[in-house]
Amino acid sequence: MKTKIAIIDLGGIAQLVHLPILQKLNNAEVSAVSEINKSRLNSVAGKFEIKNKYIDYKELLKNDDSEAVIIATPTGTHRDIAVDVLKAGKHVLIEKPVATSLSEAEDIKRASINAGKTVMVGMNMRYRPDAMMLKSLLSNKEIGEIFYIRASWLRKRSSSEKWFMKKGEAGGGVLMDLGILLLDLSIWLLNYADVTGVSIKNFKHRTKTVEDSSVGLIRLKGNKLINFEVSWSLFSEKDDLYLDVFGTHGTAHLNPLRAYKLRNGIKVDYSPFSSTTVSKNLYKKSYENELKHFIGTVNGNLGITSSIDSAVHRMRLLEALYESANTNAEVKL
Questions:
Q1: Which end of the chain has fewer CB atoms < 10 Å from its terminal CB, N or C?
Q2: Which residues contact 17 (CB under 8 A, 6 or more apart)?
Q3: What percent of the chain stands above pLDDT 70?
Q4: Cα Rg, the chain, nearest whole Å
Q5: Long-range own/partner contacts, residues 115-119 (CB < 8 A, 24 or more apart)
Q6: How far is residue 71's CA from residue 299's CA, in Å, rounded to a whole number?
Q7: Per-residue model confidence as pLDDT tens digits over 99-153
């Protein structure tokens, strides 16, 4: 039996990731799609041979028998659409970030509890094969106790979607776009250690209402630190993503995955032979793993990860980061 999934909004992420992957899965079926742009709706639905198509997502919810819905709309619409989907008795996968604010995220959580349905948030970085291998290494304490993570994600430009530049629709800038993924990954690798304080500086070099660069420091319980930077505008030769993990007995790195430690004065290399895997393949694989996991949760075969509870915590962290940027001071949590 195939799990029927509907998709709301047919922008880049749906066309490049959700639709191609779902159509290749044996246990999933795209039952319907919704898109307010009629031309795009007809074009994409035709390309992927999807018969049930709607301009108004509320008509989709009323007429389609899907078990779950993927929300890929601009962030500013997530709360209202998610609440409607949950009231319709369907499970939800929301593309990150879950909402534009903490209060909106909490509204979605309440609706999820009332409906008794699962809400998963698309934190695809957790599902990269190299990230999952790194998580396993850290969980086995191969490099000792982790005390410091240094992470960076620099892009030469932002998304081509114009709404990313509008605070009302996006909620924020690069911190909401790249930062939330990088910080979610870091905190996940640290086994959800509680954040105790944040300090950040935001810059608007090529943008007006949202930040295009952020540099920050996050303190966590257990004397742990995360130092991060994200940017759409730092001048560099190429897009760059890295994450370095420092433990009491060694270090580990992402992109590519490498891990080393000293044992009796001798360097031990834990790096897998596949560490040179092209990052583009890892990107696609992360979404494939994420969608498979979502289907597993809908069917009751897998426990939820990147849940609405986790998303609420991330939004609380983001609000503290923006407060720190606005006050030019460290914010305690």
A1: N
A2: 284, 287
A3: 96
A4: 20
A5: 115/86, 115/87, 115/89, 117/86, 117/89, 117/90, 117/91, 117/92, 118/91, 118/92, 118/297, 118/298, 118/304, 118/307, 119/82, 119/86, 119/91, 119/92, 119/94, 119/307, 119/308, 119/311
A6: 19
A7: 999 999 999 999 999 999 999 999 999 999 999 999 999 999 999 999 999 999 9
Residue with the two structure tokens 């898109």 = 35
Q: Report which of 294, 319, 312, 314 is spatially closest to residue 108, judged by C-alpha positions.
A: 312
Handedness of CA 254, 310, 227, 219 (dihedral sign): negative
Return the residue matching tokens 């505008």.
Answer: 233
Which of 317, 141, 82 is CA-nearest to residue 214?
317
Which distant-in-sequence residues (6+ apart) come within 8 Å of 310 by Cβ?
121, 123, 184, 192
Task: Using CB atoms within 10 Å of the CB of residue 116, give its burial: 0 to 12 exposed, 13 to 18 middle, 19+ buried.
Answer: exposed
Is the peptide bond preceding residue 256 cis, with omega within 30 degrees of 0? yes
CA pair distance 154, 49, nearest whole angstrom:
37
CB 89 within 8 A of CB 118: no
